[in-house]
Structure prediction request, 190 residues.
Amino acid sequence: MRNIDENYYDATFVSFLVKVGIITRPSVNHSDPAIFGLLREDGIKMRLAHLRASNRLLEQEYNSNKCNYMRNGDRWLVCEMNNVAKKIEKVKKAIYFNKKLLEGDNNQQGFDLEALKRIPLTSIMRINPNNFFQENPFRNEKSPSNSLFYYRAINRCTDFGSNKSYDSIDVYCAVNNVSFKEACKEMINL
Prediction:
């Protein structure tokens, strides 16, 4: 007969409580370099090195897909090349932002984008009870819009005319005709 550790049932019960959400695990912020005994600049330099390496790998993947497309003419490779190009663009933006942080550019203000995206769209625009927007700020329409639908559960809207999805920051930018950065600054006060 196998001996069961005395703490086995306690650990199992705690695991169950975590799984059902009665207790939560403490989350660790790994993005703070001070946790690892590093200076802020060291953390930014490490992040830049990682981003540059990622950029090189993505560019190699893009070039490989491009060569295969030119050789074989596989149409699906065009979609893959577009996806990789989007990833490259994101990485380049992150590299630019981190370079500015390293140079000491204090004009780069960080925002909690997830918190801003959780601001209900109903506080930005008027939405009918049937979850359609009263007006569509993304198109020049004078009548009530039956093309922009609000999904309350995920706090996003979809424009059925253009088949695009928007979050609260996108809607705020369109309604107030401001840039992304200005919208973030103004939405903090909502």
Summary: The first helix runs from residue 8 to 20. The two ends are 63 Å apart (CA to CA).
